[in-house]
Write a structure and sequence with these properties.
The complex is a heterodimer of chains A (287) and B (168). With 287 residues, chain A is mainly β. Chain A is built from one helix and 25 strands. The longest helix of chain A is centred in the first third of the chain and has 17 residues. Chain A starts with a helix and ends in a 5-residue tail after the last strand. Chain B has one domain: Nuclear Transport Factor 2, Chain: A (Roll). A five-stranded mixed sheet of chain B has the order 1-2-3-4-5. Chain B has 168 residues and is an alpha+beta fold. Chain B is globular. The chains are: A mainly beta (287), B alpha+beta (168). Chains A and B meet through α1, β4, β5, β7 and β8 of A and α1, α3, β2, β3 and β4 of B.
């Protein structure tokens, strides 16, 4: 009995499908937002539908009159089914709505802050959309440019694939805010990538006696490209003497770090910041 | 004896019907063994993306059938959610429903962004769509087309941010 019901419903489905015929005059492809019309034949009233995940339209129409789709009625790109249901006929057709001209760029630049002098460290990803927020799938050429004031700029042109273009660029040698731009014809988007100095190069300190203390001071801290290491970066001084160790963490102020430590004849004094080790001084009482 | 046999037969038939229905409802899914790049896509991520994308079709079908845009929230975000919700609202106002039943998916992952913030896939999909006007079926159509989807990670899952079909 149940199987009979299943087969009956299948047969009904097949019969329903067989009752449909092709709806002529529907264009295979329409640009989003443009007007078009579909000629109809016969007489009497009918109901016209356009359905798809992007739009749903229902209209009462008069057979024999053309069905006009106004500009802006169908603005979401996608695949659609059109159906014209009359008293005695059901006609259907499929068609596609495609994106119009590029109008906006969705541009994601990462990271927003990074050290200078790193290769392939800044990524830019663009998705190209038309005025109706449809992804433009036709290949387009996006020009990426990364520039820092007073430094050389990097440019790269990339063709979109399935609406996406991406690039990886090097961070510049010079610290500062970099302008990262993606441009497609008259449309452009800009992001700022803060490039900061890298780890210090040649961390060196000097020591001098001051009463019963040792005054320690680093030379101005610069990275390997000559950019000043930012104030606030922590520098660690260590004094090892007779099995004991004294540690002082000092933030850089005006480009240098300084502190004082007990004057211990024979002490070994070292300096470091992050993973960068500086010089060592074997203290001989200032002699 | 005869009663037991009848009950057993009915149970067997019911099980058969359920299996039959499930076999018909569940779409076939084929995923091309592609390496999208530029970021390396780990198997676990690939599996999660496909699972969440497939769930989005199921959710979309339910939302369009029920004319309930709130159902979209679990799988869609951004412009994809907004566009689908607008369509559902248009359907509701016009008194129509659409029933989407996906039959097969042929999926290729084509882009995984450098920072891991978006995955793009292409899906050649076959589905049946039925148009119901005030509950009465008006027409049905078998459709084959290509979908472009972009998914982005959220707190617990990948959600569809761009969902657009194109001429295949």
């Amino acid at each position: 009995m149940i199987l009979r019901l299943i087969f009956a419903s299948l047969l009904i489905g097949v019969s329903a499908a067989a009752g449909q015929s092709a709806l002529p005059g529907v264009p295979a492809t329409v640009t989003a937002g443009t007007a078009f019309s579909i000629a109809t034949s016969g007489s009497g009233k009918a109901v016209f539908y356009i359905v798809g995940p992007g739009e749903a339209i229902r209209r009462d129409v008069q057979l024999g009159d053309p069905i006009s789709i106004q500009a802006g009625d169908l603005h979401n790109a996608g695949h659609y089914t059109a159906a014209l249901i009359g008293d005695s006929s059901t006609q259907t057709a499929d068609f596609d709505v495609t994106a119009s001209e590029p109008a906006t760029i969705s541009f994601l630049a990462k990271p927003s802050r990074l050290p200078v002098g790193l290769s392939a460290s800044i990524s830019g990803v663009t998705y190209i959309f038309d005025a109706f927020d449809n992804l433009v799938l036709q290949p387009q050429t996006v020009a990426f440019e990364l520039s820092v004031n007073g430094g050389a700029s990097q440019t790269q042109s990339v063709s979109t694939k399935n609406g996406v273009a991406w690039v990886k660029l090097n961070s510049a040698a010079k610290a500062g805010p970099a302008q990262f731009q993606a441009r497609l014809g008259p449309v452009s988007e800009k992001r700022v990538v803060q490039q900061v100095s890298g780890d210090p190069c040649n961390l060196r300190m000097t020591a001098r006696k001051s009463g019963n203390r040792i005054e320690l001071e680093t030379q101005p801290l610069l990275d390997c490209q000559g950019n000043a290491v930012p104030d606030g970066t922590i520098v660690t001084f260590k004094e090892a003497y007779n099995g004991t160790e004294t540690t002082v963490d000092v933030p850089i102020k005006r480009g240098v770090a300084k502190t004082d430590m007990p004057d211990q004849d024979g002490a070994l004094i070292s300096v470091a910041t992050g993973v960068v080790m500086g010089n060592e001084i074997q203290w001989r009482g200032g002699r | 004896m005869r009663t037991s046999f009848t009950i057993a037969l009915l149970t067997l038939c019911s099980a058969f019907v359920v299996i039959f229905a499930l076999a018909f409802d569940k779409p076939s899914v084929r995923v091309a063994p592609s390496a999208p790049g530029p970021r390396t896509l780990e198997d676990q991520t690939r599996t999660a993306v496909i699972k969440d994308y497939m769930a989005s079709w199921n959710t979309m079908g339910q939302a369009f059938e029920a004319n309930n845009p709130a159902l979209l929230d679990s799988e869609f975000v951004g412009s994809a959610r907004e566009k689908l919700a607008n369509t559902i609202e248009d359907q509701r106002k016009a008194g129509i429903q659409t029933l989407y039943q996906d039959r097969s998916h042929d999926i290729s992952l084509v882009f995984y962004s450098p920072e891991g913030l978006s995955v793009q896939l292409l899906d050649t999909v076959e589905y049946d769509v039925k148009i119901l006007d005030h509950g009465k079926e008006q027409a049905s159509q078998h459709v084959r087309c290509r979908y472009v989807a972009v998914l982005t990670p959220t707190e617990v899952r990948w959600k569809v941010r761009i969902f657009q079909s194109s001429p295949s």
